[in-house]
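=== Structure Prediction Worksheet ===
Name of assembly: unnamed complex
Input type: mixed (protein and possibly other molecules)
Chain count: two
Listed entries:
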Amino acid sequence: MSRDIRISFIGDSFVQGIGDPEHRGWVGRVLQATPRNVTAFNLGIRRNSSEDVLRRCWQEVEPRTLPGADNRLVISFGSNDTIEEDGKVRIDPARCLDNLASILDESEQRAMTALVVGPPPVIDAGEGHLRRTSKLADEMAALCRQRQVPFIATTQGLASDPTWTREVMAGDGAHPGSGGYTKLTDIVLTSLWHEWIAHPGH
Amino acid sequence: MSRDIRISFIGDSFVQGIGDPEHRGWVGRVLQATPRNVTAFNLGIRRNSSEDVLRRCWQEVEPRTLPGADNRLVISFGSNDTIEEDGKVRIDPARCLDNLASILDESEQRAMTALVVGPPPVIDAGEGHLRRTSKLADEMAALCRQRQVPFIATTQGLASDPTWTREVMAGDGAHPGSGGYTKLTDIVLTSLWHEWIAHPGH
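=== Predicted Assembly ===
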């Protein structure tokens, strides 16, 4: 019999599902479309950068793992790192990549199978933000490739999606409604989600 | 302008929404029916007793509060405390009440408006469990009354609800599906949820 899968999803407001009238975001929709029964924990916090996530990651993930279970971690951040405040980006991209590497290394040590979902765009943060976030996403993808951790790119796909951009602009400028979260769900599901779920953990 | 409301929901598998095919449980459904925009965090962990919740409560709630926001806390536990293991209940009821009192005292000190949702029944744990849980729920209600913290009773209402019991018995013996969670949502919404949301925090 296959082991129980327990997944902690850690990240920012997009993980949290801010703006979704159904209050489940892409995480809840992806789980609903997952045939296997999964115990899931949503650890998204709005405005969180990679620094914020790293700071709380293990103290929050630890009580959500179970010895003997197939414990996993889905990580998604970066959109807040590349936001400009007072003329400078919040977190330097090299630092963000170090933070991701640190989390992936620790996951490996804890025998937790990891997956990374790339940073969605923040539409009202403009072209500069989109350029920085796309570049960061590419670098995250390369880092994940080196470690054989699956990476799901979202930045460009969402920035050019009419449902995502329309809902975001009708909302708070950053977060979509149910249509946008459904689009992000589709991106995750049609990437390597199902293989990742089927692949037994460590 | 009224302040942003941020609510952490902390507790056990019922808070987490285990068994719900839509992956949002009563917490997501209650939020969807709440007219005000609320930033919510689901901190439910299956099998958690009041001890487990107390242990992690403030370290997890702290990074989810924002200075100046209307920060609130919804607490729901007890169903695991009253489970019998190896011939004794997991957590003595007096201890469970102390744990609740401790969390409510700390909420007060942190100026976080609190609300308590009583423990749902665990159908396949039998009559003894239902009797213990109902008694514990009454004592929790009395403790909340003393502190003028709203308490929403769920134990008896769910134990006698045909949708809840049918879904639970068709499932894992403890957790319902979407119908049961909708029933629990109705109990919360028709109690004092809306007044609690409308009432400005500290």
